[in-house]
From TrEMBL:
InterPro entries: Filamin/ABP280_repeat-like, Ig-like_fold, Ig_E-set. This is Uncharacterized protein. The lineage of its organism: Eukaryota, Metazoa, Spiralia, Gnathifera, Rotifera. Filamin repeats lie at residues 48-111. PROSITE patterns: FILAMIN_REPEAT. It comes from the Eukaryota. SUPFAM superfamilies: E set domains.
Length: 119
């Protein structure tokens, strides 16, 4: 099944629609998110990476970036490059390796914790 919005129509035994039909069911696949190849060593003035969210379905994309030394979230900017590509950028306050978590529809994406060294 491909991600997207699906309508389900239910009928009774004589072919009449069940009350409330049609039912709308969003189908999504958060693990369809792909991080495009990038340089893991980046300038502190331009730390960014690009995610491809093609075929994941409708939903909100979340990014959490953490300080290298303290459990503090770093603000980031999410910019739509096209319908299915998103650029995530942030301005680190210091040189270090930042831990980045990605989630789609509040579901953590398996294997999508990445490390980015900014210097």
């Amino acid at each position: 099944i491909l991600a997207g919005d699906y309508l389900i129509i239910l009928k009774d035994y004589i072919g009449q629609l069940i009350p409330g039909c049609p039912y709308n069911f969003p189908v999504y696949n958060p693990n369809g998110t792909h991080i495009e190849p990038f340089n893991r060593l980046q300038s502190i003035n331009d730390c960014h990476f690009i995610c491809n969210i093609d075929n994941v379905g409708q939903g909100k994309f979340f990014v959490m970036i953490y300080d290298p030394l303290k459990p503090i979230r770093i603000p980031c900017q999410i910019q739509n490059l096209s319908k299915n590509r998103i650029r995530i950028s942030f301005l680190p306050s210091k040189i270090g390796t930042y831990k980045i978590y990605i989630a789609y529809r509040n579901i953590p994406i398996n294997g999508k914790c990445i490390y980015l060294l900014c210097k």
